[in-house]
Structure formats: C-alpha cells, structure tokens
Design goal:
- This protein is mostly beta strands.
- The chain has a single domain, classed as Metal Binding Protein, Guanine Nucleotide Exchange Factor, Chain A.
- It is 5% helix and 38% strand.
- The chain has a seven-stranded mixed beta sheet with strand order 6-7-8-9-4-3-10. Strands 1-2-5 form a three-stranded antiparallel beta sheet, with no helix packed on it.
- The N and C termini lie far apart (34 Å).
- The mean pLDDT is 93.
Amino acid sequence: MKGSCLCGAVVFEAEAPAGGLRIGLCSCRFCRKAHAAPFNAYATVPRENFRWLQGEDRVQTYASSPGKNRHFCSICGSQLVAEHPGEPDLLLRVALLDEDPGARPVEQIFRSHEVPWLAWEGDIKRFDEWPAGR
C-alpha cells in the first residue's frame, strides 16, 4: 500500500501485517486536535513493513503526549504516522493511502470523547461531488 501527504513531498509504503490490516477509528481529544477532524482512521503496521519512499528529510516529529510521537510533513502538515518509541508497530494514517487497502474499520475507540455535532444519520444532504451551483 502506498500513501502520500497532501502536497506529495512525502511518499511511503506499508505492507499489511499477517492477518490483514485492522483499521480503527479514534475520537480521543489528541487525535481530534491533531487531525482537525472528529476522528482519526488508523491501522497498526509492523515497523519492518513500513518504509519511506520519498521525502523522509521533510518529515518532522511532534511529541503530542508522553510516550507518543506524531510524524508529519513539514511542508503541508499532513500527519503521516505515529509511534510509541520502543513498540514494534507504527500507527499508520489510513486516510493518506492512495489506494483502497481492502479492509474496513473493525473498532472505534474513545467514543466518550466524540464531538456532539457529529451526526452519522438523519437529514444530512449527501453529494458525490460539490453540490450544484457551488
């Protein structure tokens, strides 16, 4: 699976672990703030299954909480991966994948931190692209 940041300066490749990719959704306060989104889609991949293909020199690190580093593109700010140093896996940011990983979310964590305005159902207008006239 290949992925890239918003500006394309950083490109990476990751291989799903044995047993397949397990995607999760995290609504914790740190993920919401770091991604400017109501949740983050993540998947763990073994460190040995991840490699930078381009732009590793553009990757910066932010220690967002004790024992957790978030790596992001220094140009566009896209979060790339996160890690707990010393642990065998990286936390891949699934939304950055440039292709369908063939897996779907299997867990949702920190639901107690969900934002009250996020509505999954109801009278939400849905469009495949920009609405007409926009």
